[in-house]
Amino acid sequence: MQIYKPIIILIFSLCTSSYAFSQNKDTIDLFDFSFEELLNIKVVSSAKIPERILETSTSIQVITKEEIQFLNFNTLQEVLEYATGMSSINGEANFFTTTTIRGNTLVNYNTNTLLLIDGIPILNAYHGSFDFQVIPLSAIEKIEIVKGSNSVLYGSNAINGLINIISKKEDYLDENPVSASGSLKYGSFNTLHGESSILYSNEKVSFSLFADINYLDGEKLSYNDEEGNVLNFTKEYKGNSMAVNLGYGDFKFHFQFYNRAEDAVRTREFKRIYTSIDDSIGRLVTEPNHELVTISSIEYNHSFTDKTAIHLRSNYNSWHNVKNLPDGYWEYSANGFYNDIEFSYIPNTKWKNIAGVSYNHFIGRRFKSQYNAYDVGRDNIWTDEFAAYLNGNVEFLKQFNFFYGGRYFVSKYDDIILDNFSPRLALTYKPVKFIALKLIYGNSFRVPTYFEKEVFSHRVIGNPNLLPERSQSYDFVVMGIYKGFQVDVNVFRTKIFDQIKRVDSPADPEMKINMNTGTSSYCGLEINTKFIIKNHFHSFAGYAYTKGCDTETSETNLFTYNHMFSLGLNWNIIPQLSFTSSLKYLSDWGAAPSYTLLNTGLNIKPFNKAPITIEFKADNILDTEVLRPEIA
Question: By C-alpha distance, which of 484, 343, 483, 488 is closest to 428?
C-alpha cells in the first residue's frame, strides 16, 4: 500500500524561549559549540558500559542534543528521518508510522528494529512496532543508533539494529542544584509544539521531569487505496508525553506516559461511502483513535568492588488503543513484564565481561465490538520468554580488541516451545589513536507477534506455529576522528531467514495466511560524517546505498530504497544570529517515487546574557509531495 503525503508540517515557527533558575545546562546554545564535546562523546549501547565511539565493536551513529536542536522538528520520528540509512513507513494512513533501518520493511507493521530508552525496551506484543512520539524530545540527551544484528544484549526485534534513547541527567553541583527550560512553537496547520523540563540533584537524590505537547489541525493528506484510487482527508492530531526519572542511591525509578487522539484510515478491509449515484470511487471513513501508553521501570545498580557489579531491572509496558468505527469499535491492548539480572566482571582494564539472564511475560489482544469477541488474544494465552547471555571483550597486542558474545533464548506460547542461539563476534584494530577498523559478525531474531500468530479477519489468518525470524549480518567499518572531522564508512551484508509474510492460503485462495517463507539478502554502503570549523560551523551528512532481494527468486524487495542522502547544518553567522538547514533525498522504493525535502531556519539571540532565543523555521520549502509505502 502507498501513502501520498505532502509534508508541509511547519511553515512558520514563532518563538522558543528558555528560563533557568540557575545556569541551565539543558538549554542548548546554538551559538557556542565545542568540537571536543560533540565528537569525543561516550556511548553505552554497544556493550552496556561507557565507551568512546572509536572503541566500540559496532556500527554506531550518534545524534546529539545539539543536532536535534538545530534540526528543530517536533517529534523523534522527524529527527530520525535525517539519520543515515533510515526512513519512515506508514500504516493506516499515517497512524502507525515508524522508521525502518537499511530499507528492510516487511508486513504486519513490524520494522525489525528495537527501540529502547536508557536501555529499557519499548515493546508492543500486539504488532511489534512502536510510536516514536512516546518519547518527549525535551528528554533526549542523545540518540544512539546501532546497525546490524544485535540480539545478544537486548533480545528480540534487533534484526536490523536498535535505537537507544539516552535521557538527560543533572550533574550535582552545589551552586546549581536545579535547572529548568521551556519552549513553545506555533506554525501553519495550527501546529502547536511545547516542551518543558526540570532537573534536580543533590548528593543522594536525582530527579527529572520532561513533558511535550503536540497539536495539529488542517494538514491535507492524500493516499492511494488498495485499488489505486487517490483519496484525501484532513489530519487532526492531539498528543502529549511525559517522562519522569527518580534516583536514590543505587536505585532508579522511571515512568513514561503518552496519549494521543488521531484519525486513521484503513487502506484494506475498508467500507466506502458514496456521495452520489455517479460517484464510482467513494471515500473512506476516517476512524478516530485514542491511544494510551505507560512504561514503568525500577532498577538497582551496585558495585561490590571496582571489578564486580550487579544490575537488576524490572519494567512493565502497557499499550491501549480504541479505534471507533461506524458500526462499533476495536480495542487493542498489549501488556508485558520484562526483567533482567546482569553481573559485570572486569578483572583488569584489558578484559571486560557482562553476563545476564532475563524473563519476559507478555500478551497482545484485539477486541471487536461488532462480534463481542477477541480475534487476537481470544484465549488469553500469555507468552513466557527466558534467556541467558554473555558479552565481553579482551584487548591484546595493544592495538587489537576481540569481542565475543551469545544469547540463548527459549519461549513458550501455549504448548509451542521455540528456541534460538544468537552469537556475535567482532575484531577492532586501531593503527593510530584517531582511526579504527572493525570487522563485525552478528546474529539476531524476532519473535512472532500476536497479530501474526492469532489474527482472524476477513482477509488474513494468523499462524500460531510461526518460527522466529532470524538474521545474520556482516559489517566492515572504517572510522576516523581528526581535527574537527569525523567520518565512518560501513560496508554491510545482512540475510534474514524464515521471513514472516502473507501468502495465499492453501484452503482459500481469497484469504492470506502468515507463513515463514523465503530468505532475503541486503547489502550496501553507508557513509556518515560530522565536522566543525572553529566552533562556528557544525554539520553532519550521510549517504546510504542498499540493495535488497529475495535469494530464491532474485526479485528486488519492494520496500528497499537504493540511494539516500541527508544533511544538517548550523552556521553561527554572528554571535547573535545562526542559520540552520536540513536536506534529505530518497530514491524511489517500491512504487513510491523519489523525493527531496529542504528545510531552513534562523535563530536570533537578542540578549547576550538572557537564555532566550527567537526562531523562524520553514519546512519543506520545495513543496515536495511524498509517497511512502504502506506496511499494513
Answer: 488
Amino acid residing at 191: T
- Could you give the number of structural domains in the chain? 1
Q: Which residues contact 342 (CB under 8 A, 6 or more apart)?
A: 48, 310, 311, 312, 354, 355, 356
pTM of the model: 0.88
* Grid coordinates belonging to 319: 499499550
Q: Which three cell numbers stand for residue 452?
A: 501474526
pLDDT per position as a tens digit, 297-334: 999 999 999 999 999 999 999 999 999 988 899 999 99
Q: What's the CA gap between 334 and 601, in Å, rounded?
A: 40
Asked whether the beta carbons of 597 and 623 are under 8 A apart, the reply is: no
Give the bridge partners for 331, in sequence order: 322, 367
- Which residues of the chain are under the pLDDT cut of 50? 1-33
Looking up residue 51, the CATH number of its domain turns out to be: 2.40.170.20
SS3 state at 600: strand
What spatial distance separates the first Cα and last Cα of the chain, rounded to whole Å?
A: 7
- For residue 82, the enclosing domain spans 2-515+523-629
* CB distance 549 to 555 below 8 Å: yes
Query: Comparing C-alpha atoms, which of 318, 227, 322 is closest to residue 281?
Result: 227
- How many angstroms separate the CA atoms of 288 and 306, rounded? 54
State the residue for C-alpha cell 500500500: 1
pLDDT tens-digit series, residues 106-162: 555 556 788 888 888 888 888 877 777 788 888 898 999 998 888 888 888 888 888
